[in-house]
Structures are given as structure tokens and as C-alpha cells.
Amino acid sequence: MGKFASSVLSLMVIALPMLVSCKAVSSFFDDGKTVAVVGKHRLTVSDIAALVPPGTSSEDSLRIVMQYINAWASDLVFADIAESQLSKQEKDVTKELEEYRKALLKYRYEQRYVNERLDTAVTREELEAYYDSHRQDFIAAVPMLKARFMRISADSPVIGTIKENMASENIDANIYADSLALSSADRYTDYGDKWIPAAELAEDFGKDTESILKEMRHSFIQIRDTDYDKINIAYVSDFVPAGEPLPVEYCSEEIRGILVGIRRHRLVTALERNLLEDARAKGRLIIY
Fold it and tell me: Which domain range does residue 123 map to?
């Protein structure tokens, strides 16, 4: 029997009984017990003890453990067959390991160097300057908006007052509208402090995006609910159509990441340049 077949058979002899019954899971907690074998490799309880969270059912415990065993076995079975079938030259990975080691050391040093020097603070002026120079990189793929939404009885006497204060530019009026809507409406949601896709507001109406936007008049969308005694009302305080640049506040986190990334790239580039210059100056690098 070949080494590959022997490895698989050894695994099956140990692992298959555990598939027969979930009662086998309880046996995993016997110290020192071998739970799977692939050739000369053994997997013991101590190797898998931390895999199963306390309180996990027997069925889930068995599933978790068997997934780990299968992954462990797959790696070793492949390694064993590769060891037996590949030539000495094919198995020589010295060069690849050395290249990986150098790349890993370089990466770790770069990370330490950058982390010690990278300034992650980004000012408002820097955000706006980048945004102004790259507006076309921040185009809305779908309509975006800020809004306040309420579902309220169609005959409520406070609808007009709420709408008037919703649309006010006075913060106290907005707070009054919030208070009145919360106490009078069946549902009230304030999306006024964040940009959302128009489709999210459309869900509140039970409509599609195109339908609600067609109903927008003077920043208000007003549509009867499926319950005809109710009415859905939204005040859209800000709106960006699809295909237009998104506002800088919406893009600020993305821009901050871009600017910090640029700084990181500059640090790494400068590090590489300085190291080469230093090596040349000290005679450690000679190019003929």
C-alpha cells in the first residue's frame, strides 16, 4: 500500500467512528486522547480543546471538530504525497523560503519605521483641498439624501406644525418638530445627521426610489400609506442626484484614508531611497 493510501486509511480508521454518533464528542475531553492520525502525525485533544466554546451542543461540537480535523488532515495528506512524489530538486524550497524571509523582514521593518513616524492627523483644510482637486473621484452612484421621515394619521392636526418646523433652519424648531413627531406620529425617523441612499428612505414609504423622488415637492415627499388612514411624509434637507459629486462630509473618512496612505507611501519611498544612498556612501553598495 502506498504512503498516500496508508495516510488516508489511518485517518479514516480514527476519524470515521466519530461520524457515527454525536456521543463521540464527549470522548474528546479525555486528556491525551488521539483523535486523528495522518501517517506519523497525530492530532490530540490538547490540539483541539479550545475549538469548542462552552455550552456548544454535541452536534455543533462534532461539526466544529470535524471541520478542523479535515483541514488539518488535508494539509498533511498533501504534504505527504508531495514528499513522496516530487523529485529532490522540486522539493528544494530553500530559495523561496529565503525570498519569503527577506520580504517578511522588509515588511516588518517598514511597518515599524512607518508606525513610528506616520502622522495620521488630517485637518479640515487638507480634506477640502483634496476633495476640490478630485471631485470627479467622488461621484454618487445612486441618489443620496438627508431626511426626516414620519408616518402619521392623515387627519392629525399637528401635521402642518411638524412640517413647518422640520423645514426650519432654526435648530430649536427642528428639536420641536422631533418632539412633536415622536409624540404624535406612528413612526418617526431622523436621518438628518447622515447621508443615506434614497432607496433606504424609499423602503420607509414601501415604494421604489423613482416613485418617491417623483413625488418630491419643495423638499417634501408626501404619499398616502397602504393603510389609507395614514400618510407618509419626509422632509429632504439635502439631496445629491446620481452622477453628481458627493458632499465632502460624506467622503471625509475615505479622503482621510487616502491622505494617510499617501503619507505612508512617501515614508516608505523615502526610506528605500535613504537606505540605498547610505549603502552607497558607506561602500556597501557598488554598481558597476
Answer: 93-134+247-288
Q: Do 78 and 99 belong together in one domain?
A: no
Looking at 136-247, list the stretches that DSSP marks H as alpha helix, in order from N- to C-terminal side: 159-166, 171-184, 198-205, 209-214
With beta carbons less than 8 A apart as the criterion, state whether 3 and 80 touch. yes
Backbone torsions φ then ψ of 277, nearest 5 degrees: -65, -40
Backbone dihedral angles phi then psi of residue 197, each to the nearest 5 degrees: -65, 140
The cell 402642518 sits on which residue?
Answer: 160
Whether 190 and 144 have beta carbons less than 8 Å apart is answered as: no
Helix or strand holding residue 34 (H, E): strand 34-38
pTM score of the predicted model: 0.70
Instruction: Write down the residue that cell numbers 471541520 correspond to.
Output: 67
Measure the CA–CA gap between 151 and 229, rounded to whole angstroms.
10
Cα 31 to Cα 15: distance, rounded to the nearest angstrom: 17
Do 217 and 282 fall into the same domain?
no
Distance between alpha carbon 255 and the CA centroid of its chain, in Å? 18
Is the pLDDT assigned to residue 29 strictly greater than 70? no
By mean pLDDT, which of 31-40, 85-94, 106-115 is the weakest?
31-40
Cα dihedral sign for 205, 211, 215, 216?
Answer: positive
**Does residue 47 sit in the same domain as residue 176?**
no
Q: Which residues of 123-142 are buried (b: 16+ CB within 10 A; e: fewer)?
A: eeeebeebbeeeeeebebee
Give CA angle at 202 (201, 208), nearest 5°.
160
Instruction: Check whether 102 has a pLDDT greater than 90.
Output: yes
Instruction: Collect all residues with Cβ–Cβ distance below 8 Å to 119 and sequence separation of at least 6.
Output: 263
